[in-house]
Amino acid sequence: MKKILLKDLLNFSSEQIEKVKVKFNQHNGDTNPMEEYIKNPEAINTGWLFWRKEKRYFNEGEIAICFFKLGKDTWVLSTIKLVTKELNKKNGINYEGEELEKYSAYYGRVIVKHHKKYQNQVRKFKMIIEDLEVSQILPTIYDGEEFPGYDNVSLSYNQLKIIITKHKRDWINALKNQKAVYLITDKESGKHYIGSATESEGMLLTRWTTYIKNGHGGNELLKDIINEKGFNYIKENFQYSILENYNARIDDKIIITREGWWKRVLNSRTHGLNLN
């Protein structure tokens, strides 16, 4: 089957192609642009696209294509803008631009395959024109990953917050009627907290919602972390996953027993974040 390339979709003229550049936005060590896009697309479409450190990425009159990284060799097209003005700023937003309405139906929906083997964030479109393959066009604007199955859940604080606050239907339906033993990992320290979601605690969705609201869910050691390092520490370093899940008919006592087993296996009472 013949590949569909991004150039086929956008259909730039040969004159335009000379003026097109592509900006690839990916995790910078602190922030994931995918999460930022879901919260506020303009944070990527202006803030990340037109941010400059030392290098001058664009010139007035050029066309800027903006991607953010979705996964291994996959990128989401978030906007295409005509660069209208340079602001002569370093370490800040250095350009102004006008979004090209002609391509608006593709923004947030077109997923492209591209193996980025260079360090530069910005490349001339003509240099990679044959390497940008359209792999998928989503039916709606990208709003986060689909539920991957209980065995594959691994969420940052921000990802979990987006799922809950945006009420992502597939995730909500998967979590709201499940009992579970879950794992919270402090990626900075490597310490674990083992918890359980039972009927008395409102199932997994309700339990995890409390962590989004206050960061600690009532756990005293997590409260200590917040008091010492602030809520932002939780938001930046905590990861949420599922060790075991059960349907609503399973007796709560079984869940509690399994929670204790995992605490012993991972030694989370002695070297982790569990007090009991």
Write the layout of secondary structure elements.
Elements lengths: L5 H5 L3 H4 L2 E6 L7 H7 L1 H8 L2 E2 L10 E9 L2 E13 L5 E2 L1 E5 L10 E4 L8 E3 H4 L4 E5 L16 E3 H9 L3 H7 L2 E9 L5 E6 L5 H12 L5 H10 L1 H7 E10 L4 H14 L11
Parallel strand pairs: 1-3
Antiparallel strand pairs: 1-8, 2-5, 3-4, 4-6, 4-7, 7-9, 10-13, 11-12, 11-13
As an assembly, this protein is single chain
The structural class is: alpha+beta
Q: Count all strands and give the number.
A: 13
**Terminal-residue CA separation:** 58 Å
Explain the overall architecture.
The protein folds into 2 domains: 6-137, no CATH class; 150-265, GIY-YIG endonuclease (3-Layer(aba) Sandwich). It is 32% helix and 28% strand. It has 11 helices and 13 strands. With 276 residues, it is α+β, with helices and mostly antiparallel strands. Helix 6 crosses helix 8 and helix 9 (220-229) packs across helix 10 (231-237). It is elongated, with a radius of gyration of 22 Å. Strands 1, 3, 4, 6, 7, 8 and 9 form a 7-stranded mixed beta sheet that branches. A 4-stranded antiparallel beta sheet has the order 10-13-11-12. Strand 3 (63-71) and strand 4 form a beta hairpin. It comes from Sebaldella termitidis (strain ATCC 33386 / NCTC 11300). Keywords: Plasmid. This is GIY-YIG domain-containing protein.
